[in-house]
Task: structure prediction
Amino acid sequence: MHCPFVPAYLLERLAAAGHGAGGPGRTVEVDARLRARRASLADPRRAQVSLPTSAVPGDAAPAWQVHTAGGTARLPGDLVRPAGGPESGDAAVDEAALGLTESLALLADLGRSSYDGRGATVVATVHYERDYDNAFWNGTQLVFGDGDGRVFDRFTKPIDVLGHELGHALTQHTADLAYAGQAGALNESVSDVVGACVRQRHLGQDVSEADWLVGVGLFLPGVQARALRSMAEPGTAYDDPVLGRDPQPGHMDDYVDTDDDNGGVHINSGIPNKAFHLAATAIGGTAWEGAGRIWFTALTSGIGPQTDFAGFAEACVAAAGQHATAVAEAWQQVGVVAGRGGRTRTVGGAGAAGPGWPLTVRRSGGYAGLVSERTVDLDGDDEVAARARRLFEAVDLEALRPAGQHPDAFVYTFACGPVTARLGEQDLTPELVELARLVLGADDR
Ligand SMILES: [Zn+2]
Result:
């Protein structure tokens, strides 16, 4: 019989280059435990209420805590370094501590006490699982992997990753932008804006000195990449024989219609990212005191979960005061006219499965917004095909429904013939977790 696997996209490229044999499959295994843990939380946002707040009211800086999962999936894990504590000597712990301190200082500059505006203690966990290629906000706390050590370095290493994830917490507690389509791309972009402001403020750079790159240092040496994303020139951050090319557009003419990644939230965020860069450079000074304050006001004043690019542009112009013309022009340069509604896309559901079709498993999203995909011939006569067939037959694709999405969590697609089921990692059944691990993780087949 022919080989049952049809390699595609990133995972195939990583495998072909001898990378990622443990990374992607390992990450799928982790997702199973993540899903189980999430299932034990009735409502992450309700859990948020029980988090401690700063002990001292008034001008005291909000507290933070860095925990370690010690290579497991335990959250929050063991407390290693609280605010005010000494350096630990553990690079990931101390990088997280610096990133949290700087992110909270930015919010304080903007007049906000922590992400909830009420001084909530920020909880972060590092050393999450092993070879984990992601960072995320789970609705309650921040979580960081150490990377696979081949393509990705520690996710705590670039300070803007810390700012980005805390930005998701800020958005959840303000506009609460949906995590799909244009609202989802705005959710992503706002986090990149927070990350950029944190990084530029930390480095003491004004808008002309900044490089406007996102995630510098996340890729290990040897990867042909300047960074993960470019806000000044979306689509130019990397072009690597292993990773492929940065897919971000910088104009509405190139808006990517896709069902991956919650409607391409990590791809189309390039458009509002570019608008922010254009506005910031037109206004001048520093990003966090100029355009950043305008974007922050727009986020916290009147926009809602379904706001699209045009609606957010309108809110930015309204918040811009003397810079209203510059901000309107920045959005126009990326093809967005303030107040004039644009396209929105939502993520689809499941249909009816048919026999005799190959099964394609696809993973998209995650902080890096990269895609892995493999196809298995369920009629194959080898052991992998037999295991995949048994698992697939135990799953009722028709009964599966997406149930929302956590920022930066992975999105899995299971496609068989005319049927496509698209689910966040927290919604996978145990059979789907094993099926994804089997198909995506079988690099040596
Ligand atoms: Zn994100």
Summary: Residues 179-346 form a domain with the Neutral Protease; domain 2 fold (CATH 1.10.390.10). Residues 181-203 form the longest helix (23 residues). Residues 164, 168, 188, 191, 367, 407-408 surround zinc ion (CB under 6 Å). The longest strand covers residues 359-365.
